[in-house]
Design goal:
Blueprint lengths: L6 E6 L5 E10 L2 E10 L4 E9 L9 E4 L4 E6 L27
Antiparallel strand pairs: 1-6, 2-3, 3-4, 5-6
């Protein structure tokens, strides 16, 4: 999955999430995105942690929570092509995709 330009739009599909916590941080030339929350009638716990390929602009990046999903607009520190989203190869990340509709 390639990201181009200055933004990488991501969508986390979790319906009716509550007690959500997002953390975006830079460390050692990469960035980390962390999410925890509960969803559903039974309060199922969800967690996601991604180490992104390069650093991001944490202050300008945005997180928006809606009833059907969580939208993250990742702003890169330097515009340009990323050959993939995460530091690790994406072969085991088949459930993660860029949201090119936004």
């Amino acid at each position: 999955m390639a990201t181009r330009g200055r933004v990488a739009p991501l969508r986390v599909v979790v319906q009716d999430v509550k007690d959500e916590k997002f953390k975006l941080e830079n460390a050692e030339g990469t960035a980390k995105l962390s999410f925890t929350g509960q969803a559903g009638k039974d309060g199922q716990a969800y967690a996601l942690e991604l180490t992104l390929l390069h650093e991001i602009n944490v202050d300008d990046s945005k997180v928006s929570v809606s009833p059907r999903h969580i939208f993250v607009l990742v702003i890169k520190t330097e515009p340009g092509h990323w050959e993939r989203l995460t530091k690790d190869s994406g072969r085991h990340l088949t459930h993660i995709k860029c949201d090119w509709d936004k």
